[in-house]
Predict the structure of GMP synthase [glutamine-hydrolyzing] subunit B.
Amino acid sequence: MKQDMILILDLGSENNTTIAREIRSLGVYSEIHPHDITEQQLAALSNVKGIILNGGPNRVVDGIEIKASEAVFKSNLPILSIDYEGSPQWPAEASEYRKMLSDFIFEQCKASANWNMENFISDQVELIKRQVGNKKVLLALSGGVDSSVVAALLIKAVGNQLTCIHVNHGLLRKGEPEQVVEVFQKQMKANLVYIDASERFLSKLEGVSDPEKKRKIIGAEFIRVFEEEARKLNGIEFLAQGTIYPDIIESGTKTSKAVKAHHNVGGLPDDLKFELVEPLKMLFKDEVRACGVELGLPDSMVYRQPFPGPGLGVRCLGAITKDRLEAVRESDAILREEFSKAGLEGKVWQYFTVVPNFKSVGVRNNSRSFEYPVIIRAVNTIDAMTATVEPLEFALLQKITARIVNEVSGVNRVLYDLTPKPVATIEWE
């Protein structure tokens, strides 16, 4: 690694990512690791210039206060110990906090401000070449920004050793499979295999209501599809994924509870036949986009709003049914179309619809109706760790509502979710 690194050791803080992002904003690379890092693990990290011990409310586990490992104190690296409970509240306090970090990083650790996308890409290309050698790689290409940036990195590193597979699991947005084939196969000339496995996935998900189980079923089934395709392609030994830092952090650490399992973190089967290639796993979402820009990907791809790996499966709440899945797909298409007309495309970070598994009484054609509600969610964020709700104009909400209740079968009510993250997560499941 060309970049100097400041290591953050998690001693129970809930704000590790805040410090990591603050350090990166100063131009220095940072990573979060468990408190009990070993000498071997520490030695394996490149260019570590200093260590921050970050305590917090989860410092006591099962009645025992966790402490940094002996390896930390044997390292002879500069150490800063803090108990960090929240973001600075006032400009003076924020300035003082930033100066404390800056003094530690640059004066005590003598770190260089060399964290940038050009160096990151150079490092990752080198690491991918070293990991993959002359072997073949399989990539799950959803068409979202994460997998697209991974594809660009892999093409830069190993070229035609990469095969991209786009799996239609029946949980994609309206027109999305066709768009992925058009962009990646026809325009980018990628080696793309398209698999329609929608019935297979929906069959596996039938009757499953628990969101964690849904995510794990989808993740495991993805791997099975890839294994089958790999056998057809011969010689595939690596599986590339668009895992990013929030996926790993939200799946839990030794001193913090999981927010939710991510299909590409907690949902992988134990008997995985591939070695994973995850070049973005230490990047936050905004950094992934910056990486895509540096790689020369078009803005339409780089700034496309994020879409979860389980797709509409976590927006069709509870056990998935075909009628509610279709209601999610159609209402989402209307929402995206109206946001585009209103000039909000690219200005709002993420927006989508959710259909819960309950009905409400309404009136349609002068008769009682008993149909599903549609919930609209629109949020803004930088790193997906916190999010604010977009204050939409009421006239736009009325227009979207009118279209959804008149054009989407089985829907008689539209709601707007006003809850930020935290306390809510961005997705409902």
User: Anything to note?
Assistant: DSSP finds 14 helices and 16 strands in the chain. The two ends are 37 Å apart (CA to CA). Residues 211-233 form the longest helix (23 residues). The longest strand covers residues 367-380.
